[in-house]
Amino acid sequence: MPITGEYEPNTWSWVADQVAEYEASGGERANTLRDTGIPIIVVTMMGAKSGKVRKICLMRVEHDGEYALVASKGGDPRNPAWYENLVADPHIMIQDGPEPYDFTVREVSGEERDIWWERSVAVYPPYAEYAQKAGRLIPVLVATRS
Q: Which of 8, 12, 16, 43 is the most exposed place for a label (fewest CB within 10 A)?
């Protein structure tokens, strides 16, 4: 079921601009994290407090059709706002190419988290540094196609 409602672009203009360019090009442009060459996905969700549609770019950590969503916030001691959105409403859309698809997320723990964490660090090694800096266990959520 598509996520509908009033869209409120990200307050960080570079994120809002990247989402807009990615979507406008069907994932052909703006599909990496800045100049790193590391692929991203666009995640659409409902804002828990605002009730508005929110969109973010995250590292593309995919395995067998599922995606890891790593709530690192660059090593900040707090979770990113989008984490609270997903806890409140686990129905999201992920665009990894031309079309977005419906997914449901769940937070993983224990051995399953360890496996997804290793996959995530393999894609984006700075996650390991972020974990050291954050002073918290960084949540990992797994998105499964609905």
A: 12
d(C-alpha 90, C-alpha 118), whole Å: 23
Phi and psi of 102, rounded to 5°?
A: -80, 140
User: pLDDT per position in the chain (146 positions), as tens?
Assistant: 789 999 999 999 999 999 999 999 999 999 999 888 999 999 999 999 999 999 999 999 999 999 999 999 999 999 999 999 999 999 999 999 999 999 999 999 999 999 999 999 999 999 999 999 999 999 999 999 99
CA nearest neighbour of 118 among 140, 98, 133:
140
Level-2 CATH architecture, domain 13-145: Roll (2.30)
* C-alpha radius of gyration, the chain, whole number: 14
The candidate with the shortest Cα–Cα distance to 65, out of 20, 102, 29, 36, is 102
